[in-house]
Amino acid sequence: MNQKQQIILDLNEIFTDIIDEGEIMLNPETTANDIDGWDSLNHIQILAAIEKKYTFKFTLTEIQNLKNIDDLTNIIVQKTSA
Amino acid sequence: MLFTTFTFFIFLPIVLGLYWLFRKNLVLQNLIILISSYVFYCWWNYWFGVLLLFSSSFCFLITRLIGKTNHEKKRYYLLLFGLAVHIGILCYFKYFVFFVQSILTLLSFSHINIAFNPPNIVLPLAISFFTFHLIGYMVDVYQKKYSYSDKYFEFITHVAFFPQLVAGPIERASHLLPQFLKERTVSAPLFRDGLRQMLWGFFKKIVVADTIALPVNYIFLNYENLDAVTIATGALLFSIQIYCDFSGYSDIAIGCAKLMGFELFKNFNYPFFAQSATEFWRRWHISFTTWMNDYIFTPLAFSKRDWGVWGLMFATLISFILSGLWHGANWTFVLWGLLYGIAFAYEINTKKIRKRWAKTYHPDYYAAFSRLATFSFWVFTSMLFRSESLTHFWGLLNGLADFSNLKIPDIEPTIFLWPLLLITVEWYQRNKEYGLAIQDLPYYIRWTAYAAIIVAIFSSDNLNNQSQFIYFQF
User: Fold this and answer.
1) Does residue B181 contact residue B262 with C-beta atoms inside 8 Å?
2) Closest chain A CA to residue B316
3) How far is residue A33 CA from its own chain's centroid?
4) Are B298 and A44 a contacting pair at CB < 8 A?
5) pLDDT tens-digit map of B186-235
6) What is the pLDDT of residues A20-70, one digit of tens each?
7) Helix residue ranges per DSSP H, B161-205
8) Catalytic residue (one of B86, B133, B158, B327)
9) Which residues cross the membrane (chain B) (predicted)?
């Protein structure tokens, strides 16, 4: 399993826990439109949980340019390998 | 120029005729849109056109400067300058008198009395709408989400585009501007769809909203002499009136844009069927909610994410108070925003327990109860929209709390037929783009519906009666 796949597994857990609408299976192309309950309120909580897990901080520009899960995993890879 | 006047019914075919006559010439088509949009806007007051031209030209210049430099500090100061100018213009026209009077009222509590003769400032129509459009674009360019435009003519044309100029949907340059840079085409089904959506918008505004406006105006004006049931009925009717008025405008705007081959944002998604305040705001004035979410709520909530749920509640409260102020310079709107902020805070904190309730009770009953509670809250808060002051609102509340002399409201029963019909149709059509999206039905049903709506519109006394759309004042 490569690093990005592992990150998506971690994200599945975080999303499932915060959105609380049953098990969530993410893939790189998943967007907010694909998941019921991934609204702006949950989005902020998800980002805070990711920051806590990986011990880094997002910037506002980074989160505002996110389009899908692939973008999110790319930032996590970049931040954790820096 | 109002959509619901004979002037517009003459204006639109002329514009469309010229527009499609020159379909091979994009520049000429855009020029026709630019001229017609300024004619449309200046119909009220030509000074409005001067302000619109200044605001869009200034935004064009400042975003070019932001986009052309890589010097971060310079970009930041340019953004601040641009924001200060746009917000300054908005504050001067919309909030100056309100702020001064509020400060003087506060001072008067400390026995400091200063005389103030409010200047007669005319609020330019649409200023809140196009200012938000321009601010959004400026921030997007600053954040490099969207590259700056170097096409002045197309830029000022897209800002002034008359279907969306006066009351939205609040567009984003990233969505609308590219449509001005390429050839537009309209298929026969899309053209019919545009006409159909406009027809539905006219029906909602002229037949439903303007008809129920009469008892609503009477009740809100004479509430002191009316009983609780009548006041509650007035609040209920007003909440439907404002929906039909505003979503009707949006349908006309979106349909009108379709006739020219443009796509505007969807602005309403059957908000009366929402099961929570959070969902309501995902369905009501969507272009405004997403704007507030992207430019106010998300940066605020993100900056306070370490506060956990408190950070979310703080950001929600501030966003809603600002939303209230956007609607008007009045404490009624601030209180209205505050109430929705509190409702959101309640929903954030009770998410898990509400899910448990939903599982405990029959899902249909729980959904029906949630819809009723959400709608009732909307009816209650709508009274703030209609109240001229907090004193007026307080008087309405006192009237609602007085259970003596209750009686059946003295309102023509047929007044209730249109709202009932509308809500029934919308319930059955709730998965469609808009209420009259009946293109899949057999032709004899469709044409019967169209004919009935046209007869209802033209037999209504409200056509051409110059009644403004409620959202124009915002």
Assistant:
1) no
2) A41
3) 14
4) yes
5) 889 999 999 999 999 999 999 999 889 989 999 998 888 888 899 999 99
6) 777 888 888 888 888 887 888 888 888 988 988 888 888 888 888 888 888
7) 162-165, 173-180, 188-202
8) B327
9) 6-22, 50-66, 78-101, 121-139, 307-325, 331-348, 368-385, 441-459
Spatial separation of the C-alpha atoms in residues B425 and B420, rounded to whole Å: 9
- Residue B174 identity: S
CB contact under 8 A, A51 and B305: yes
pLDDT over threshold 90, residue B258:
yes
- Look at residue B461 and tell me whether its pLDDT is greater than 80: no
Q: Show the tokens assigned to B134.
A: 């321009």
- The C-alpha of A41 sits at a distance from chain B's nearest C-alpha, in angstroms, of 7
- Pick the closest to residue B377 from B239, B217, B228 (CA basis): B239
> Could you give all domains of chain A from N- to C-terminal order, each with its CATH number?
3-81 (1.10.1200.10)
Of A20, A39, A63, the CB nearest to B302: A63
State how far residue A11 is from chain B, nearest Cα, in angstroms: 18
pLDDT at B463: 66
DSSP B294: I
| pLDDT for the residue B295 | 93
CB contact under 8 A, B302 and A44: yes
Name chain A contacts of B172, Cβ cutoff 8 Å: none
Give how far Cα B357 sits from Cα of A15, B129, B287, Å. Answer: 22, 40, 32
Average pLDDT over residues B66-75: 90
Q: Of B200, B246, B191, B219, nearest to B12 (Cα)?
A: B191
- pLDDT over threshold 70, residue B320: yes
Residues B293, A61: C-beta atoms closer than 8 Å = no
Judged against a pLDDT cut of 60, whether residue B471 lies above it is answered with no
